[in-house]
Amino acid sequence: MESGKAWCTDETNEIVAIKKFKDSEENEEVKETTLRELKMLRTLKQENIVELKEAFRRRGKLYLVFEYVEKNMLELLEELPNGAPSDKVRNYIHQLIKAIHWCHKNDIVHRGFARNLSEGNDANYTEYVATRWYRSPELLLGAPYGKAVDMWSVGCILGELSDGQPLFPGESEIDQLFTIQKVLGPLPTEQMKLFYNNPRFHGLRRKYLGLISGALLDLMK
After folding, report:
1. Which pTM value belongs to this model?
2. Beta partners for residue 102, in sequence order
3. In the chain, ranges of CATH 1.10.510.10 domains
4. How confident is the model at residue 163 (pLDDT cuts 50, 70, 90)?
5. Burial class (CB within 10 angstroms; exposed 0-12, middle 13-18, buried 19+) of 13
6. 3-class SS at 130?
7. Cα–Cα distance for residue pair 189/198, rounded to 1 Å
8. Is residue 128 classed exposed, middle or buried when 0-12, 13-18 and 19+ CB atoms within 10 A define those classes?
């Protein structure tokens, strides 16, 4: 689904955020997924989670009306390129953990943390890239995962808020795994087995993962 954002004021003079999706009525799988996610969003009523206020369709597109949030993490770090003060970091992470705890209490795993980019921001940071930086090895490898993947993301966000720099700024999935190992050491044995068996990671990159950088692997190839 393609999405965009717009800001508006409704009849109550409340500022809200509207997210527009390309709706695929003819695709039953997409339709079922959308309805399931809408139902999930409506159950997530908690002070630290952005509230879904309304959803409606118009001219083949789905519109979600959310509570307006003044600033996202990318905008915060643009103002504080060296990171936020420690008391602010504690406050932000406390709120984030409360939100994640509520999701987990309702058997929801978030998985999709991002810098919340909007149109007009630095083109070097796409939504996919920003999401990749917060993915645990399980998600990168397509392995079974649980609620712990969200806590991995929280740790990545904690590090980035502290000094303004992404903790694991991988340039691709393979480079993401390399960057993680460069900081934390080799992946656990079971995850390495999954890596070796994944056709996406075959070839020179499989043999030299964790030993040399992605740029040197490209040069070798």
Report:
1. 0.75
2. none
3. 73-220
4. very high
5. exposed
6. helix
7. 14
8. exposed
Query: Which residues of the chain does CATH 3.30.200.20 include?
Result: 3-67
Which tokens sit at 145?
A: 């995962």
Tally of CB atoms within 10 A around 123: 8
Find the distance separating the first CA and the last CA of the chain, reported in whole Å: 36
Fold classification of 73-220 (topology level): Transferase(Phosphotransferase); domain 1 (1.10.510)
What is the tens place of the pLDDT at every residue in 75-105? 899 999 999 999 999 999 999 999 999 999 9
What is the DSSP secondary-structure string of 21-39?
A: EE--TT-HHHHHHHHHHHH
Tell me which residue has tokens 């993962």.
Answer: 209
CA gap 38, 52 in Å, rounded: 9
- CATH for 3-67, options being 3.10.20.30, 3.30.200.20, 3.20.20.70, 3.40.50.10490: 3.30.200.20
